[in-house]
Amino acid sequence: MRAGVREGFPGQRSIVLPRPLVSNWLKSDPLLDFLPSDIGFYPTATHHFVERKSGIAQAVLIYCVDGEGWAVLSGRQYRISPGTVLVTPPEVPHAYGADEQRPWTIYWVHVAGQKAASLARFLEIEDAPPLLCPGRNPSLPTLFDKTIAILERGCTTDNLLMASITLGQLLGQLIAHRHRHPGDEGVPDDRVKNAIGYMEKHLDRTIDIDELSKTLNTSRSHLAAVFKRNTGFSLLDFFIRMKIQRACTLLDTTDLPIKAISQQLGYDDQLYFSRCFRRIHDCSPVQYRSIMKG
Predict the structure, then answer these.
(1) Which of 229, 10, 223, 20 is nearest to 137 (CA)?
(2) What is the rounded distance in angstroms from the CA atom of residue 176 to the CA atom of residue 20?
(3) Which of 22, 132, 158, 194 has the most CB atoms around it within 10 Å of its CB?
(4) Distance CA 23, CA 27 (A)
(5) Are 227 and 213 in contact (CB under 8 A)?
(6) Beta bridge partners of 96
(7) Bridge partners of 94?
(8) What is the crossing angle of helices 235-253 and 139-152, to 10°?
(9) 96 near 56, Cβ under 8 Å?
(10) Is the Cα dihedral 267, 269, 272, 278 positive or negative?
(11) What separation, in Å, do the N-terminal and C-terminal C-alpha atoms of the chain show?
(12) How confident is the model at residue 57 (pLDDT cuts 50, 70, 90)?
């Protein structure tokens, strides 16, 4: 059985599992008692708006990677900025949407299963604003993309198991970052933010860490230590993952040849680009494009 795919925003990807399939899976005593019943990616989601006056049975997680949005839960309003995750627990009334001036780009997932009700406790937001601040962690888009790719291959028992395991990895990442807040560690966080901004502007070239350190007025060793502590990745690994994430966007939303995409991202050697891509996504760019576009 193939999963349902909904269209709405140019370049979007989304999967909606049939509800009887989800129900039967959760009744089958699975290894993990949760499943991504709905999951997707909405780029520049202009006029995106959802309102659920009675809530829904699943927990909803929305990871904003660009632009801005807003949310209202139980009568309280929140602003959603890049690097922020909104969590709406099951059965809680809520509404959310994209900012009119700077519409958000988001990954989102509905978490079905008995454990969905426990997410607020594990994420320690039961008596706090329903927001997490993992920052622009490249592992999160990678895990969202991987889950989507698994489900697009079909709703087999093995694929449902792998999707639940990958969702578990994503939730684990969020739990690990649940104590982070914007502004933690003061100046070092600013340096990490500025380093990521520098990388975003130079995805078409090879990163020069000495030049980056000089630009941020810090030593190479200190920047490397602060960056690793805040993101969990080395500077080079983070930069490569940003390149590959950009490659995924180009593969999903354009018909550019693989060679042109690799060159656009500063890879003169297409084979080396493919090896880097496979290391992160466990498939080649050609296979990824085939999976995403069917």
Answers:
(1) 229
(2) 33
(3) 132
(4) 6
(5) no
(6) 50, 71
(7) 52, 73
(8) 40
(9) no
(10) positive
(11) 14
(12) very high
- Secondary structure in 3-state letters for 225-258: HHHHHHHCCCHHHHHHHHHHHHHHHHHHHCCCCH
pLDDT (tens digit, 9 = 90+) per residue, 184-218?
443 345 788 788 888 988 999 888 889 988 888 88
Task: Please report, to the nearest 10 degrees, the dihedral formed by the alpha carbons of residues 187, 192, 197, 198 taken in order.
Answer: 100
Matching residue, tokens 């490659």: 247
Answer yes or no: is pLDDT of 225 > 80: yes
Strands 59-66 and 49-52: what pairing?
Answer: unpaired
CA gap 116, 1 in Å, rounded: 25
Cα(248)–Cα(241) distance, integer angstroms: 10
Cβ(36)–Cβ(111) below 8 Å: yes
Count of Cβ atoms closer than 10 Å to residue 20 Cβ: 8
User: Residue 185 corresponds to which tokens in the numbers above?
Assistant: 């560690």
Question: DSSP secondary structure string, 134-193?
Answer: --S-THHHHHHHHHHHHHHT---HHHHHHHHHHHHHHHHHHHHTTT--TTTTSHHHHHHH
Residue 4's pLDDT band, with cuts at 50, 70 and 90, is very low
Dist. CA 204–CA 246, nearest whole Å: 10
Taking the CA atoms of 277, 278, 281 and 284 in sequence, report the sign of the dihedral they define: positive
Whole-angstrom CA distances from 83 to 80, 123, 216 are 9, 16, 21
Question: Residue 21 in 3-state DSSP?
Answer: helix
Enter the pTM of the model. 0.67
